[in-house]
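Entry 14. Structure prediction run on the chain below.
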Amino acid sequence: ATEEIPVWQMIAAPLERISTRAKEWQTILSSRDPSGERFKAEVWPGESAIGGGSLPGETLPSALLAIAAKRIDQVAERLRAADPPVICRIQQDHLLFDPRTVLVEQEEGLVTTLTKELMHG
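Output returned:
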């Protein structure tokens, strides 16, 4: 069942794989703005909230893609309006993306949308 149900794939993913994916995203995005003029991408340690219902507040360790950019509220708004929409958290003036919540087949679209919106304006 773990291999077939996306939420179980996300929960079962080892931290090492999550960290590798976050670093891959960071490398790709950083190559699109090598000067760091428009944004800066980093990988931060973090937590994925998995609880709800009968397990409120349960978390798993994760690695987050953290992006500093000008006007992050506007970037987040454009990401939500993108097709497909991209949802992120804002914390400490950074946009945060958790690879644990992104299916592997969604990665290319995510990175493409992030690049477009981060390089916009």
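The radius of gyration is 14 Å.
Filed with the rest of this week's runs.
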